[in-house]
Amino acid sequence: MLLKSFKGGVHPRYFKDLTSGKSIRKIDPPDRFIIPLIQHTGGPCAPLVGVGDLVKKGQLIGKSDKYISSCVHASTSGKVVLIDKAPHPILGKAQAITIEADGRDEGVKDFSKVRDMGEISPDEIRRKIEEAGIVGLGGAAFPTHVKMTIPENKKVDTIILNGAECEPYLTCDGRLMVERPKDILEGLGLMARAIGVDRAIIAIEDNKPEAIASIEKALQNTQYKIRDTKVVTLATKYPQGGEKQLIAASLGREVPPCGLPFDVGVVVSNAGTALAVYEAISKDKPLFERVVTVSGDCIKEPSNLLVRIGTPIKALIDACGGFKKRPKRLIMGGPMMGVAQTSTEVPVIKGTSGILALSGEFTGGREEGPCIRCARCVDVCPMRLLPTDIVRLARKARYEDAKGLNISDCMECGACTHECPARIPLVQWIRLGKMNIPKG
Ligand code: SF4
Ligand code: SF4
After folding, report:
1. CA-to-CA distance for 265 and 263, rounded, in angstroms?
2. Residues facing residue 341 across a β-bridge
3. Contact (CB, 8 A) for 218 and 394
4. What is the pTM of this model?
5. What is the pLDDT of residues 219-253, one digit of tens each?
6. Ligand 2 near 377 CB (within 6 A)
7. Peptide bond into 239 cis (omega under 30)
8. Distance between CA 166 and CA 170 in Å, rounded?
9. Cβ–Cβ < 8 Å for 177, 184
10. Does the CB atom of residue 410 touch ligand 1 within 6 A?
11. What's the CATH class of domain 26-103+288-358?
């Protein structure tokens, strides 16, 4: 059977078998939490607590008045001991609230109780998503309540559940689809209600047969059933989970350059986000924990862990038995698009899907050679760009010319770098070029 896919892309080694069969394991909260006031796309939060204040799990502790932002909550009960710059996995350092845990882990309420959701309205769903501080958990961390607010001049007819999880090593979404399929589908149904659509596509790559079977079985029995729901099995290819690639593969619609999914009538949400929406609405539970894949050849016992936001990544590595050899690369996220880390003191944030400890480079690593004009980077680019030409211009600081080659459309997937036989760090040059392109 010819599986659905998109044009371009690569087939890296996936290494998912290290954790794909491992059930999600909850780890104990650490003694100290670092809760950054910026963990999302948009404006940073301002603290709502002061040093010395006592807080409880699930208490709102940071909020912004910007439209695009997402509030933050305490991940355990304890005392605020510092509000200052602290290690941040993406920004290096950023303003954060440090909480010393009191060991009681007392919540503002009991988050395990499921309430009857009844005939909840779209506005109520959006409000609860906003109050729970939910963002896209696939890594982009875009505020979900904003995504669920469709501009008046746009018409949306489909929601896609992104179950591709195309980055190597990562299996947290795959495990959630195996272990919590019904709750994910309830969350998807609630999001469909929020945006007023009655068509859903659940898109999963064919390297997750257990997740496909589990979702298909659970589809029979959900409260917020979407009239027209189908599971689409996609070919395993990177970056299948990119929103534009996912829409092209599962619906055959092309998002225009610089456009967004709702320009073609679609909203995309990942599996972990759907679960968070379900928990926010059925249990009034803010986003203070998530599942993280901890993997790589330097980790003793690669695992999928349920961890609190703000937990230093050292605690996750310890919960996996520590390092079995010294890592050369520590990465937050997947190896293709993740962010290199220099310290294990950085905290898990809302967008942390994985912690990888690798003994070598995943892409590149050998000495860079001259471009041999093989055009492999062009063939694999899912955005149909000309990476080699863009990089030639970026190296010469000809950013205006690079703009003419649509450098801004680059999604920084790293497929070109992965494929380049000359080991040219194409995506790094493109990232630099994007930062320097003239505005307007
Ligand atoms: S140019 Fe950008 S979008 Fe194209 S393959 Fe390279 S990183 Fe991906
Ligand atoms: S893949 Fe590498 S060597 Fe081949 S054209 Fe692109 S930049 Fe040049």
Report:
1. 6
2. 330
3. no
4. 0.94
5. 987 776 788 999 999 999 999 999 999 999 999 99
6. yes
7. yes
8. 8
9. yes
10. yes
11. mainly beta
Tokens (6 digits) for 139: 């890594």
Per the structure block, which two tokens stand in for 83?
């509000």
Span(s) in the chain for CATH 3.40.50.11540? 119-283
Over residues 355-384, the pLDDT tens digits come to 999 998 877 667 889 999 999 999 999 999
**Alpha-carbon distance values, 403 to 258, 367, 385, 429 (Å):** 12, 28, 11, 13
State yes or no: pLDDT of 312 exceeds 70.
yes
Confirm or reject: Cβ of 433 under 6 Å from ligand 1: no
Q: Tokens for 179?
A: 């272990």
Mean pLDDT of 92-101: 97
In short, whether 10's Cβ falls inside 6 Å of ligand 1 is no
What pLDDT digit, counting tens, does each position of 115-128 carry?
A: 887 789 999 999 99
- Scanning 50-199, the segments in alpha helix (DSSP H) are 122-131, 144-147, 172-179, 181-195
CATH 2.40.50.100 in the chain is located at 26-103+288-358
Read off the tokens for 77: 């009960």
Provide the CA 417 distance to its chain's centre, in angstroms.
21
For a pocket test of ligand 2, which of 371, 391, 426 has the largest count of ligand atoms closer than 8 A to its C-beta? 371
Atom from ligand 1 closest to the CA of residue 411: 3
Beta carbons within 10 angstroms of residue 111's beta carbon: 17
For 265-283, the pLDDT digits (tens) are 999 999 999 999 999 999 9
Hey, what CATH topology would domain 119-283 get? Rossmann fold (3.40.50)
